[in-house]
Amino acid sequence: MQDLFKKAWERIKDSNHIVLASHINPDGDALGSSLSLYPILKEMGKKVTIFNATKPLPMYLDFLPNFDKVTDKLPKNYDLLVSFDSGSFDRLGIEEKPPFLINIDHHISNTKYGDINIIDSKAASTSQVVYNMLKANNVQIPASSAICIYTALVTDTGSFQYESVNDKVFEMAADLVRCGVKPDFVAKMLFQRDRLSRLRLLAKAYETIELTCDGKVAFVEVTKEMMEITGAIKDDTDTIVNSVRAIASVEVACMLREDDDGIKISLRSKNYADVSKVAIKYGGGGHVRAAGATIKDEFDFKKVKEMLKEDLCKIVKEGE
Ligand code: 5GP
Ligand code: MN
After folding, report:
1. Which ligand is closest in space to the CA of residue 264?
2. What pLDDT score was predicted for residue 319?
3. Cα-based angle 100, 104, 105 (whole degrees, multiple of 5)
4. Which residue, 248, 267, 259, 251, is CA-closest to 305?
5. What is the fold of 2-191?
């Protein structure tokens, strides 16, 4: 890994115009990781474009420094694209192959689509991989970068709750605080600016919770109608599946959301089930404890639930 960190940094130093890109429908880790390099590269005198194909971006991340510089337009000419938190090339929403691509990620399902691939599936967040790369190259981390790396870490560890959290994660968090991060500020920005429409959506979605497989598998539904009635937006659905997983008996929770192109599924497990296997089966990907996919051109919730029930009960039984 140290060699890769050095090789990647050399390539960055040798490039003039760098694109920092992250996956469509970005989460805190995707945007945080890509934004974290911006002040550092600017300080090095680089031309930098921060790219994300999604519009609009999730507003709950608008406090991240340089959030307003993210664009959905790729420049015509550039030397290097660095991708963050994107398990496959198609998740970047980019048509043409970049001149050179450094792929930085922590998804176990990463397809290694880069010219340099820095994939650490044990990392708690992609931002931890970025942090390790900066440290390996003795790069000073300004406060404006540290806040992005820290926010990515908080969001991808469910506020330091997941199995990926260890001594290294807390050491990194402490170092980021020394770099200028105020954890209470980040927590308030992330968790104390809730939308009433989101709470109203939760109330409707929770009514659809269905337990199966001896209460170990839970389904929850979000329909377009629910979103319309409550005025909720897609971002408002982000944590529903986590709350459903929190039911005592549940090992695997699955949210089904009606999207324009089909049914989006979000899978979460608690202790032992590998949900990435099921997501990959349906053309998606992710991690052992958090994965997702979109079942394209399918809008029948009942049918999809029946299908998934079999897969999810199987992975739950296998691991018992
Ligand atoms: P979520 O359920 O919150 O959308 O995603 C959980 C995890 O699975 C995230 O790490 C996300 O990147 C990954 N994931 C979600 N949907 C897809 C998908 O359609 N394809 C791939 N490759 N990964 C996905
Ligand atoms: Mn991530």
Report:
1. 1
2. 79
3. 140
4. 267
5. inorganic pyrophosphatase (n-terminal core) (3.90.1640)
Residue 2: predicted pLDDT: 95
Delimit the CATH 3.10.310.30 region(s) of the chain.
196-319
Q: Output the CA 234–ligand 1 centroid distance in Å.
A: 14
Q: Which atom of ligand 1 is nearest to the CA of 30?
A: 12
User: Atom 13 of ligand 1 has which residue's CA nearest to it?
Assistant: 286
> Is the entire prediction scored with pTM above 0.70?
yes
Atom of ligand 1 nearest to the CA of 293: 19
C-alpha of residue 80 to centroid of ligand 1, in Å: 25
Give ligand 1 pocket residues (Cβ under 6 A): 87-88, 91, 109, 266, 284-287, 290-294
* pLDDT score at 60: 94
Closest ligand (CA of 120)? 2
Q: Which string of DSSP letters, residue by residue, matches 143-197?
A: HHHHHHHHHHHHHHTTTTTSTT--HHHHHHHHHHHHTT--HHHHHHHHHS---HH
For residue 29, give the ligand 1 atom closest to its CA: 10
CATH of 196-319 among 1.20.58.1000, 3.40.47.10, 3.40.50.300, 3.10.310.30: 3.10.310.30
Q: Which two tokens stand for residue 213?
A: 């497989």
As annotated, the residues of the chain forming the CATH 3.90.1640.10 domain(s) are 2-191
Give pLDDT tens digits for 102-129: 999 999 889 999 999 999 999 999 999 9
| Structure confidence by residue, pLDDT tens digits, 35-63 | 999 999 999 999 999 999 999 999 999 99
